Amino acid sequence: MGGNDLPYAKRSKKYWKETWQAYLFLLPSIVILSVFVFWPIGFSLVLSFFKWDYTSTTRYFIGLDNYKELFRLTYPVQLSFVNSLINTAVYVVIVLVVIQILYHLFGLMSKYDKTKKGHSLLYGLFAVALIGYILLRNLSSDLSAAGLFAGLGLMGLGLFVLLRRRGSIQSIKMRSSQWSTMILFAALYYVLAYVVLKQSADFVQYFTLAKESSDFLKSIYNTVYYVLLSVPTQIGLALIIAMLLNKNIKLRSLFRTAYFIPFVTSVVAVSLVWQWMFNDQFGLLNYVLSIFNLPRIAWLKEEVWTIPTIAIVSVWQHVGYTTVIFLAGLQNIDRSYYEAADVDGASGMQKFKFITWPLLSGTTFFIMIITMIGAFKVFSQIFILYQGLPGPVNKSGLTLVYYVFDAFYNQQRMGVASAAAYILFVIILILTMVQMYVGKKRVHYEG
Question: How many CB atoms lie within 10 A of CB 363?
Answer without folding.
Answer: 22
